[in-house]
Amino acid sequence: MTTQVQPLAGAEPAKIQALAAPALRLVSLDAFRGFVMFWIVGGSALMLGLQRLGGNPVVDTIVGQLRHTDWQGLRFYDLIWPAFMLMTGMSVPFSYAKRSLTQAHREIFCRVLRRCLVLFLLGSLRESIRGNAPYLVELSSALQPIAIAYFCAFLLVRRSWRFQAAVALSILAGYALLLMFVPAPGIPAGSYQRNANLVWYADIAVLGRALPEGWGTIISTIPTISTTILGLLFGRLLMSARPARDKIRIIGAVGVAGIALGWALNPLIPIIQKLWTTSYGLASAGWSCLMFLAFYWIIDVLGRGRWSFPFIVIGMNAVAIYMAGSIVPLRRIVGIFTGPMAASLGAFGVLFQAIAVLIVEWLILYWMYRRKIFLTA
């Protein structure tokens, strides 16, 4: 069973026709967002606790995937950021169509601009607290790139899908050419070495600093927009009157093509998340598409979504729980009450504390969910 709403595909480039009825939330999108956020707020600690009980091949493999790749390569944890960029874009057509029923485009634009500014400042606040110093611009925080990409996606929401796709592809191609052919002082063109590449140099030149482990920020924010535009295209597709099987085929085909093309480019353009290289952008977007597709097929197409409720509760307040990890020392507070018991449990103590923190986090989010308190900036 799938929810059908008025299509955007047939809309004029300059104007999206308003829906005849308010657009329903895409349940699979909330569940997928919650699934991804779960690994940030407690899932990783949970798996580490299981590993402390005595590793086995399955647990060890999962734990290995819950760390960022040191430099070149791709693990599950490297897909979290692209997944959020994809979901950001997917939500734009649904939100725009719903608000178009009661608001003019200018009003929606002002709201989006305000939301982007709030997200950007929340990113500043989070990184300032984490770094114990004021950071107005810190694009390594997912919130700031999301704010920028979200605004760019909104600017394209009324354009044709062909124009949107052309912009996304142009960004990826232009970024690839930039890194391949533009040198920096003391750094040859086409260098992808840690702390010796154009992305790293741009951070030094603009911000006067660079992040440890070779993370790039200023230039590498640009290609994140392409993943968000891909989400924008999928949002249009999911709102269309196409049969569910066609939507599944298209999303699946794009996902497989992204992975294949990303790895095909890897010998020429290495897959490096910390630089968001074009090959990484393609491969990570491809995997993100396939992960979302699994949720969409099971929840919205097959109608089997009861199991996803815990993830939905997390996903509908993702910003709140993401910020809470920096503002509220919840782990320390829970540890005050669970620490003595955990100390007496031996190897099980780490898992016990991880479970306790996760339960407290989820119950807070559930309390907010029941009272319809949703922090969306």
Q: Considering DSSP H and I runs of 4 or more, what fraction of the residues is helical?
A: 55-70%
The secondary-structure element order is: HHHHHHHHHHHHHH
Termini separation: 32 Å
Helix-strand makeup class: mainly alpha
User: What is the approximate shape?
Assistant: globular
Radius of gyration: 21 Å
Instruction: Give the helix tally.
Output: 14
| Low-pLDDT sequence parts | 1-23
Strand content: under 5%
The main β sheet shows up as: none
Number of strands: 0
> How many structurally independent domains?
1
Mean pLDDT: 90
Word description of this protein:
This protein has 377 residues and is mainly α. 64% of the residues lie in helices and 0% in strands. It has one domain. Mean pLDDT is 90; it is low at 1-23.
Q: Summary?
A:
The protein has 14 helices and no strands. It has 377 residues and is mostly helical.
Q: Which terms summarize this structure?
A:
mainly alpha
Fold blueprint:
Elements: H1 27-52, H2 57-65, H3 80-99, H4 105-131, H5 143-156, H6 161-181, H7 198-207, H8 224-239, H9 244-265, H10 278-301, H11 309-315, H12 318-327, H13 330-343, H14 348-370
Helix pairs in contact: 1-2, 1-3, 1-10, 1-11, 1-12, 1-14, 3-5, 3-8, 3-10, 4-5, 5-8, 6-8, 9-10, 13-14
